[in-house]
Amino acid sequence: MALWATSCSSSEKLFLASSAATRRRMGSRRRDLVHVGMTDPAEMETISIAYKEGDRERPKWADETPFSRLVEALISFKPFYSLLKLGARQVLISTAERNNIPWREMTKEILESDVYKELNTIQNTSLQYPDYYLSPFHAYDEGNLSWLAAAEAEVATMSMTRRAIPYAPSNEEATQEMRGNWVQAIKQHHMKHSGNVTIQNIVDIGCSVGVSTRFLADEFPSAKVTGLDLSPYFLSVAQYKEKKRPPRKNPIRWIHAAGENTGLPSKSFDLVSFSYVFHECPERAIIALVNEAFRLLRPGGTLAITDQAPKSKILQELSPALFTLMKSTEPFLNEYYLTDLEERLREAGFVNMKTLLTDPRHMTMTATVPHQHV
Fold it and tell me: One Pfam family name from the record (predicted)?
C-alpha cells in the first residue's frame, strides 16, 4: 500500500508545518512523516506530503452502475443487511483491538459513569429531528440517538483513524497526522484568504462527542469554540468528557440544534467546521448545511469540511466486500459521493475553494466568504 510519493503533481501536494519541539518529541520518527498543527508562524517550516489520488473523480462503486444498484439491492434485503451491519461493526472493533485501542473498556467506562446527568442540561426537548437523521447509522438501529452510539463514538473514531493511517507507529501519531493535517490546511487557507481576520469564534457543526471540537479548542486557545450536534447523547458525552479535563480559558459551549438551522446569529463566526458529517447526509441536507455556514460566517471567514475523499486511491480500490460493508452502515453514502461539493459551495456564495487529501482516505475542503459580503 504505497501512500507516499517521491514526486507528484501540485494538486497532490499538501504543505504543512512542524516545529523543532515537535520533531524532538517524535524522536527517531522520519522527518517527512511529521505533521502537526502550528500556532506560531515564525517557527513554521514547510514540508511536502503527498497522498495518492485514484484515476477517477469518484469510486466506481459510488456511480449509478448496475453493480452499484446490485449492492444497494443486497443492502435493502433485511436479513442480509443485518449480517452486513454486524460485519461492519466487527471490522471497527477488530481494528481497534489490533491496535491496542480498548474498545470495550472505553465504552464501559462511559456507560457506567454519571454521563446521564448531562442530558437534562443540554437537551433541547422541542427540537424536531430531520427525517434523514432518524435513519439507522453505523450499525445502530437508533442511529445517533442512543447512549451506546454515544459511548462508542470516540473509540470508533480512533479505530477509523487507524484504518486510515495503519502505518503510523502509534495511535497518538496517527491522530496527529489526521487531525494535524486537517487543522494545518485550515490555518493555511485562512492565512491566505481571510484578509488578516483573526479566528476568534469557531463553530464545529456535527461535533459528535467533541473530538474535533476539543482539537480546534486546543489549536485556537484564544478563540471561543462552540460544538453543535443533533444528538443530545453525543453532546452529553462531549460535555462530560470536557468536564474531566483542566478548565480552559474559554470553555467550549455545547448546543443541541440542527446544523441546517442553528439559531445562531448571522456573521458571528470566523471558522465553521464540519468533520466527517457530509457523508451521513442526503444532498438536500448538504446544501442546507452549506447555506447555513455561509450565513454564520463573517466576511473573510473560512469554511472547513473534512470527510471521505472521492479521489482517494485507497477508497477507489476498496474490495467489493469492504465497500458493501461501508455502504450498509451509511445510508446516504452514494448521495455524498455523487454531490459536486465545490459547486454547491460556489452556489452558496463561497469563493477560493481548495481541496486537499489530508490523509490517504480523507480530504479537507476549505472556502472563504467574500470580503464584500453584506
Answer: Methyltransf_25
Give pLDDT, residue 62: 85
Residues 6+ apart with CB under 8 A from 222: 200, 249, 250
Positions in the chain short of pLDDT 70 = 1-49, 77, 80-81, 373-374
CA distance 358 to 360: 7
pLDDT at residue 141, rounded to an integer: 82
pLDDT at 374: 56
Give Dmax over CA atoms of the chain in angstroms.
59
pTM for this entry: 0.85
In angstroms, rounded to a whole number, what is the distance separating the alpha carbons of residues 34 and 183? 14
Q: Which residue is listed with cell 503510523?
A: 168
Of 28, 21, 13, the closest CA to residue 45 belongs to 21
DSSP labels, 255-274: EE-BTTB--PPTT-EEEEEE
Domain ranges of the chain: 57-373
- pLDDT value for 137: 81
> Which CATH class for the 57-373 domain?
alpha beta
Report yes or no: 344 and 290 within 8 Å, Cβ to Cβ: yes
* Torsion (CA) 105, 109, 112, 118 in degrees, nearest 10: -150
Instruction: For residue 307, give the H/E element and its range.
Output: strand 297-308
Residue 178: which of 364, 363, 374, 358 has the closest Cα?
358
Question: In which residue are the cell numbers 440544534 written?
Answer: 257
Exposed e or buried b per residue across 27-40, where buried means at least 16 C-beta atoms within 10 angstroms of its C-beta: eeeeeebbbbbbee
Q: CB–CB of 162/104 below 8 Å?
A: no
**Nearest Cα to 226, choosing from 163, 164, 273?**
273
